[in-house]
Structure of Acetolactate synthase small subunit, mitochondrial:
Amino acid sequence: MASRRALAKPAAAAQLISTASARPTTPSFLARNGIRYTSSSTSALAYKAMHRRSPLKLPVSDNAPQWDAPAAVSSILYETPLPSTNPPKRHILNCLVQNEPGVLSRVSGILAARGFNIDSLVVCNTEVADLSRMTIVLRGLDGVVEQARRQLDDLVPVWAVLDYTEAPLVQRELLLAKVSTLGPEAFEELLQHHREMTSDDAAGAENGKNGTAIEDTHFHPRNIPASQALRHKHEHLDAITRLTHQFGGKIRQTIPY
C-alpha cells in the first residue's frame, strides 16, 4: 500500500507540471484571471520560442558519405552557385519590435554591416502598448535580403520581420519643410543693405555712360581664347558674389566641378 502511494505522488506531480505548462500566458488570459502582465525585453524572444514559424525540421543523414579529395573538390565546384545576373530589387521589410531604446540602432547596424543602403526608414508606435513598427525600404538581391531578414528576426527585441515586397501597399512620401515666421521688420536691415548696393551699381552705370563706350562683341564660348574664358569666368564668380552680398550672404566654400 505504501509503495502504491509513493508511485502515485510522482504521477500527480507530473500531471500538475504538464497542466501548468499547458496554460496559456497571453496578456488576455492573464487579465481574465487577475494576473498582472509585465512586459520585458525578452518578451519577443519568449514569443518566438513558443510560436515557431518553421516547424519542419531539416533532413539529417545518419550515414555521412565518404569523400576523397578529387570527388569533394568536383562536388564543391559543381554545387557552387553562379553569380546572380538579376539586378537588385526594391524590398520592403516590416519589423515588429519591442518599444525600448536601442532597437533602432541595432537594426540599422545589422543592415549597415551587410552593406545595405537604406532608402527609407520609418519608426512609429502602435496602438498596442510596448510594440513599435519599423518600415524599412532597401535595395538588394532576394537571397541577400532574405538572409538579412532572418538575422533581424533572431534579435531579442524583435517580434517578427515581414517581407511586403510583393504585397499590394499604399505608399506615401513625407516632406520636411523649414519655414520662417519672422515678420517684415526682421528684414529691414537686409533691405537697407540692398538699397545701398543698388545705388552704387546705378552710380557706376552712369559713370560708364559718360566715359568711352565699350564695344559689344558677340562671341561663342567655343571660339574665345583661354585667357578671355578665364576672365569671363572671373566675372561670373564676381557676379555671384555681388548677388549674395545683396541678400546679406557670404560665400563660405566653392567646389569646382
User: Anything to note?
Assistant: The domain at 90-163 is CATH 3.30.70.260 (Alpha-Beta Plaits). The two ends are 99 Å apart (CA to CA).
